[in-house]
């Protein structure tokens, strides 16, 4: 929420004034912050507590047992009251400070800091009896909550509060004694028996604690029917279930009666010792499951293994693949083992094992052994994969492989290619100088493949470098990015001559450097451009070698273009002009032709275009009537664009459409001032503006956009 930034700045500035002893200015800021907090609605406060600040709410039962009213407030309400109370205290206006501290205790009765603030003020007012009861009440409430509801207070503050309670008790007793000695009370002196006094104090202490600690407890896990208990426990993640097992023996027995509750394990930075314990735990679960259902097999939805230490990767992987796999069936397996080679994994992985057959989604990060096709050895056992993500962190070629057994296989046993729907191969371009899986892409058909991502590989220099795409007839999305030697001209040659796809909806082709200009051939209806791209909805050619003439010829094939998103960022060979393109002016692209050819366009991205300036923005402004569907416009990283042209463009667009643009991205456009941004927002030309002038690290356009699934 934007108000949160204002609130945090007000608190921070007020604290600065307080430290510099300017209490009047500090108090003014805290009072404004308090008014802002009070303006929040209940729904906004609940959202802030749950989604932004992640406040651990205490149960309503706790408030009832200590006879306190539960009040849901802004998470920083009490902090502001505390700061404001401190300002009044410093100005020696203690009555105002006391009122605020009393309100703090009422809002957060289980916050030890509220009692400390209130007690200090009462001590300054010499109200020692009230201060003593304040500290005593705070300690009793918080100790009860910590014992019954696992509230974890600060030991340091609890100790300080206990010390203050003892100090104020002595001060109160000394004050009473001095009054007696002064003769203000002429009552008869009484002899106090110290032993009797201790007995009375002990009885009083037990009586005070009885209200909080002598309450009947109900163990819902023990009392509820097992069917209902298991239904509740299914809502709890396995990690929390493991913690609940430590509460008591009864809870452990109930949870272990349902091994199916443990269906997801996500181990980030796991050690070898933890892996051994996990293996022992699932072995125990397996035995329990056998006694209950007659089967020792455990079914997991997701299993993620990411070792903490590179030196333990091999042993952890071996335990999983050789020992644990006998009793595990898993739908989704994620392994981040960047220092383990494909040859090691191929030797460890069980052949035709029920564990590998059960896996439908596999995500793997490892090191490629480039001398043989060990990666195909690995996948041979995964017969029913539907989703495959492989990231090669490094490539290793041994100096001598004469002692290694030849285990690399061909493509005849790759049954997984029939069922695969998502396939992603991501390599570190600097360390992996090959094209993994090229052999299988060329020789096997992928009849079910819907999405294909190839990034960071090194392709051959031949013109037929994309012929393997003919084996992917069912593709809906193709993403090719940051691949060495991958030329857009060769890609277009392939889809020009061969009809491959009927339903390709999203195409991304990002070259890693500038190759020869791609202007395509003159319009020829015998070409397959239209048949391959007729269903296209998203076209991303960022950083590509396409020219204005090439785009003009490409879009001329479409009679009813369905493209809604177009990304031409960092295309050096495109320049927006009024003149039509020609062989003499290959870079020319008419905005009028572009917009009229794409009537459904709602997302236009033109970041980091060296040719995009005020003249180009003015050209788009003249054809604003062709942008009725536009909702997102990205012109970031274009320092030549100024606020004058952007304001004029948005004004014309708003005039024709009578509705605001959804999002305008002008990041790193230093010539567009914040005044212009405020004006276009105030006049309703745009709903949201992304306007960041400087960052420590800007996003590197054209680099790999895909991240590892894990």
Automatic annotation (TrEMBL):
Keywords from the UniProt entry: TPR repeat
Alphabetical list of Gene3D superfamilies matching this protein: 1.20.1280.50, Ribonuclease Inhibitor, Tetratricopeptide repeat domain
Pfam family, one: F-box-like
SUPFAM superfamilies, alphabetized: F-box domain, RNI-like, TPR-like
Residue span(s) of domain F-box: 218-265
Superkingdom to which the source organism belongs: Eukaryota
GO biological process: one example: regulation of DNA replication
PROSITE patterns referenced in this protein's UniProt entry, alphabetically: FBOX (PS50181), TPR (PS50005)
InterPro entries reported for this sequence: F-box-like_dom_sf (IPR036047), F-box_dom (IPR001810), FKBP4/5/8-like (IPR050754), LRR_dom_sf (IPR032675), TPR-like_helical_dom_sf (IPR011990), TPR_rpt (IPR019734)
Name of the protein described by the UniProt record: F-box domain-containing protein
Organism whose genome encodes this protein: Candida glabrata (strain ATCC 2001 / BCRC 20586 / JCM 3761 / NBRC 0622 / NRRL Y-65 / CBS 138)
């Amino acid at each position: 929420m934007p108000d949160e930034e204002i609130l945090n700045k007000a608190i921070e500035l007020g604290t600065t004034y307080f430290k510099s002893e300017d209490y009047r200015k500090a108090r003014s800021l805290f009072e404004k912050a308090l008014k802002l907090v009070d303006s929040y609605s209940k729904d906004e406060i609940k959202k802030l507590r749950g989604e932004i600040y992640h406040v651990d709410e205490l149960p309503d039962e706790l408030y009832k047992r200590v006879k306190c009213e539960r009040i849901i407030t802004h998470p920083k309400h009490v902090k502001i009251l505390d700061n404001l109370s401190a300002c009044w205290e410093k100005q020696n206006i203690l009555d105002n400070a006391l009122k605020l501290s009393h309100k703090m205790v009422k809002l957060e009765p289980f916050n030890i800091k509220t009692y400390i603030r209130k007690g200090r003020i009462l001590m300054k007012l010499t109200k020692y009896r009230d201060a003593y009861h304040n500290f005593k009440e705070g300690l009793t409430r918080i100790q009860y909550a910590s014992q019954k509801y696992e509230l974890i207070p600060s030991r340091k503050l609890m100790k300080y509060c206990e010390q203050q309670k003892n100090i104020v008790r002595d001060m109160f007793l000394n004050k009473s004694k001095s009054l007696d000695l002064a003769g203000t009370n002429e009552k008869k002196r009484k002899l106090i028996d110290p032993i009797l006094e201790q007995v009375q104090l002990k009885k009083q202490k037990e009586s005070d604690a009885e209200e909080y600690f002598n309450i009947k407890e109900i163990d819902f896990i023990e009392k509820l029917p097992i069917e209902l208990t298991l239904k509740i426990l299914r809502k709890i993640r396995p990690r929390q279930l493991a913690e609940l097992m430590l509460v008591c023996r009864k809870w452990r027995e109930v949870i272990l009666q349902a091994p199916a509750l443990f269906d997801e394990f996500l181990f980030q930075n796991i050690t070898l010792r933890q892996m051994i314990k996990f293996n022992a735990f699932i072995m125990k679960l397996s035995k329990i499951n056998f006694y209950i259902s007659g089967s020792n097999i455990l079914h997991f939805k997701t299993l993620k293994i990411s070792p903490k230490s590179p030196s333990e990767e091999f042993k952890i992987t071996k335990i999983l693949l050789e020992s644990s796999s006998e009793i595990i069936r898993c739908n989704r397996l994620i392994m981040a083992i960047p220092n383990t080679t494909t040859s090691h994994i191929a030797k460890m992985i069980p052949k035709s094992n029920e564990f590998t057959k059960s896996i439908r989604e596999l995500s793997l990060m490892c090191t490629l052994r480039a001398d043989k096709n060990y990666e195909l050895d690995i996948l041979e056992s995964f017969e029913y994969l539907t989703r495959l993500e492989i990231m090669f962190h490094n490539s290793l070629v041994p100096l001598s492989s004469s002692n290694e057994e030849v285990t690399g296989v061909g493509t005849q046993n790759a049954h997984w290619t029939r069922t695969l729907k998502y396939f992603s191969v991501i390599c570190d371009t600097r360390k992996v100088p090959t094209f993994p899986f090229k052999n299988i892409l060329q020789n096997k058909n992928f009849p079910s493949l819907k999405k294909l991502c190839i990034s960071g590989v090194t392709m051959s220099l031949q013109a037929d470098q994309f012929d393997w795409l003919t084996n992917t007839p069912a593709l809906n999305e193709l993403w090719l990015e940051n691949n060495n030697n991958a030329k857009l001209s060769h890609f277009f040659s392939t889809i020009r001559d061969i009809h491959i796809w009927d339903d390709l909806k999203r195409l991304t082709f990002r070259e890693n450097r500038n190759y020869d200009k791609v202007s395509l051939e003159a319009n020829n209806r015998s070409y397959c451009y239209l048949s391959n791209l007729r269903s296209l909805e998203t076209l991303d050619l960022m950083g590509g070698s396409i020219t204005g003439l090439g785009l003009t010829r490409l879009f001329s094939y479409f009679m009813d273009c369905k493209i809604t998103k177009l990304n031409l960022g960092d295309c050096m060979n495109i320049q927006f002009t009024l003149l039509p393109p020609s062989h003499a002016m290959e870079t020319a692209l008419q905005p009028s032709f572009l917009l009229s050819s794409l009537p459904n366009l709602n997302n236009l991205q033109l970041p980091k275009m060296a040719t995009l300036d005020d003249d180009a923005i003015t050209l788009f402004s003249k054809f604003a009537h062709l942008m009725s569907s536009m909702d997102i416009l990205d012109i970031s990283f274009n320092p030549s664009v100024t606020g004058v042209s952007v304001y004029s463009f948005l004004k014309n667009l708003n005039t024709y459409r009578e509705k605001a643009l959804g999002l305008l991205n002008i990041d790193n456009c230093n010539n567009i001032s914040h005044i212009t941004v405020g004006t276009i927002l105030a006049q309703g030309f745009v709903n949201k503006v992304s306007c960041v002038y400087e960052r420590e690290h800007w996003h590197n356009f054209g680099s790999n956009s895909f991240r590892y699934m894990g």
